[in-house]
What does this fold into?
Amino acid sequence: MIILISGISSGFGRAMAMRLSSEGHKVYGTFRKPSDVIKGVTYIKCEVTDDAQVEAAVKQVLDAEGRIDVFINNAGIGIGGPLEFTPLEDAKRQMDVNWMGMVRFLHFVVPVMRKQGSGKIICMSSIGGLIGLPFQGLYSASKYAIEGYCEGLRLELRKTGVSVTVVEPGDFSTNFTSRRKSVTGPEVAEAYPNYARSMESIENDEKTGLKPDYLAEQISKIVASKNPPYNKIVASPLQKLSVFVKKIVPRRTFAWILSLYYKL
It folds into this structure.
């Protein structure tokens, strides 16, 4: 299959590119900053916040292959901290990369797949796109946006032969944690005395989380599936349970449970 993945420099994207390429797929991947090259993968430099660069990336694949069988939207960033202290420019960038980056790619990929009469769209959301997370509210907002967009897109493409799958990873041990931009300062600590303790808990969960190779394995199964799932949670049993619990208990009760877990 001809596969295009956004954001393959590290983490999930790199693991997916390695796995899918090793299985014999022709993989194209976008990147912002250079990284160790994966043998057999074609790299395309692309800033996902730039309309023209995204269009050019899709065109490069089409010019070379004539089709795109699978598109995996993976590029994303994280911003942490109390919402009120997060600079508005950071808030805009969070949405521009995580959500609008996906929208840009799909703007150019969907017509290709619809005309082909086939294709798989796989978009990376998060457990944070199902549960609003403290001190990661903007990240959650960007992932909730992905969930809603893909739900609508799936219905629009229902009779076209194009599938839409949203993947919701839980905590994974990647460099995402170290690369997260966090709000700091004495005024933050004064206003939110539990902030540091809560973020320490969040980061510990991430550092001890699942390995990205496991996520890549699940993506491989979706790519190979004749009937891809609408959604796929890839997380620890506890995090999967949290999604189920949210559905069955009152919202106030669930908020109380989260406040205990995150030491708020």
